[in-house]
Amino acid sequence: MADAVSPLADASGRPDAGVARRGVPVGVGGRSVRFRLLAIALLPTLVILPLLLGVTIVRWNAKFDATLISKVNGDLTIAHQYLARILENTGEKVQALGASARFRDTVAGRVDDPDATDLLLEHSRTALGFDFLFVIDAERKIHASAREHSATTPRTDWPIVASALAGAPSTAIDIFANEELADVAPELAERARIDLVPTPNALPTDRTQETRGMVVHSASPVTLADGRSAALVGGILLNQNLVFIDTINDLVYREASLPEGSQGTATLFLDDVRISTNVRLFERRRALGTRVSAAVRSAVLDKGRTWLDSAFVVNDWYISAYEPIVDGFGKRVGMLYVGFLEAPFTAAKYQTLLLIALAFLAITAASIPIFLRWARAIFQPLERMTGTIARVESGDLGARTGHGDGKDEIGRVALHLDHLLDQLQERDRELRGWNEELNARVEERTHELQLANRQLEATTKQLIMSEKLAAIGEITAGVAHEINNPIAVIQGNLEVVRNVMGKKAQLARTEFRLLDEQIHRISQIVTKLLQFARPEEYAGYVERHTAKAVISDCLPLVQHLLNKASIDVAREDSATRLLLMNRTELQQVLVNLIVNAIHAMPDGGRLTLRTFDQDLDDRPGLVVEVADTGVGMTPEVMQKVFDPFYTTKRREGTGLGLSISQTLVTRQGGRISATSAPGEGTTFSIWLPEAA
User: Fold this and answer.
1) Is 622 within 8 Å of 686 (Cβ atoms)?
2) Distance of CA 192 to the CA centre of its chain
3) Could you report the per-residue pLDDT of 214-227, keeping only the tens digit for each?
4) Gap between the Cα atoms of 535 and 541, Å rounded
5) Are strands 142-145 and 621-627 parallel, antiparallel or unpaired?
6) How far apart are the first and last CA of the chain?
């Protein structure tokens, strides 16, 4: 029986306010003080600092990339200035030659040699580093040439030539067709010819060669001997001009201007083809004939923008700068490029980031233990109080924090908690005392009620049993009476038949004898049935019997059940002692046990009826056993098998048979017991004392 009052409840029956609700220990959970203290201690180191560090790294990375772009932009500016200086220097050389006294004297014819002008131009071409040098008159005809010019009337629509003939010197970059270069000098046409090399990321093309030439083209006005206006025209072919491109590279990327492992490059493009470069395909082969990527071509040549970004150059990624080159007609005809390998800078960037990350982790690893040590001094007393409360909840009312230091706020809270727990323990002792006293009184009253209830149940069972037995007796007596009447008629008519037949009755004497025996058998069964139903009318006294005879009288009463279930009956009658008991009561017990055994073998089996002599407690007696090979009983059923009204037959049984049998046997000083196992059958043993 449950306690009337919980030891952890107040006088009103409600839980003590000091106990945590829903079984959750005080201070445990996502909002615990320990969690918040740890968050306060570790939030700056593990959250805020990483965020700040991440923002700083992102900004530094952007600045780093911007610095690289700024550097390559400065490199492009230097290359552009050098190219502009080449153009300017070329124009100055042509103007100086045209304005020199020697040139004027030679052109004016003051020299006797008719080829003097051609010789002067050839000498000047070699001295000044030009690839061609000639004089063209206003009729667009070659007046003199450093090299034999195969075309007497070359292309005359060059803007610089028109400007010089108009009296103004001019210099520009122009694109010569291969035929035009061949007219000037055949070796120039050959030098301009470059085989195209398939290049990843380049715009697809059907061309296999680049035959055009990119020329630094300069013209200056001069006057011929007859006073006509003319133009002194000179030019430098930039195709495969390695001195030009290497000079740019040396100017832009001086030694130690780049980190170790990086490499600066410069390139001159005609359209999208590299015609002069120090970018390498292999260790000794320059990437002449390779082409720029489609993305760069679209941005620079098609849209006229300057490219300042990472780009794939031949076979690697470079921080690159491209700008368009415009010819004398104002058309974009090529590009000037400078750049350096991106990989060393990327590696340096990642190394820096790795060092920063390692430094942060090292600082974090060194600082977190310090923070935790400081925080532990705060939350350790709180954890001790939480553990104490949890132990109290589990039933240990003697648990205490044991925190004797009351110098700070937490220490004073711990001391106050111990004081409250002392009061709670004392109150619990009082409640338990009252509870035990109340439980003792309740148990006493309950015991009295149980005794009264048992007596009432026993009386009720006896009344019910008496009523049922009385009804059974009435029904049985009526049935026996109804059977006796037809039997008497049959027996009387059988005698009449004998008398009528006279001597002829001897012919059927066997049949008549069988009829007499069966009628007598029916009469005996009815008599025994009446004795079983109303033992007080037929018995009236106890008598001495042999167990064998009583069993033999019982079998006819249950023979129809045995035949129906196909059960074999085996008998072992070894008892020699007599028993003293009312015959009908003993029949009632045995019939009940035999019927139960038949019901336990619905599919057939073997019924064994055994008798033998046996002493019990130094008293002579005999045993009658009724054993079957049926379904058996579990230990739980065995404990209740002799209880009144307990049955396993559901709708067929009343649960009184074994209870009544036990009563009848016990009343004669005997004992009845049973042994059984599921699937192995059941054996009921009746021990009765020997008749004196």
Assistant:
1) no
2) 66
3) 999 999 999 887 88
4) 10
5) unpaired
6) 52
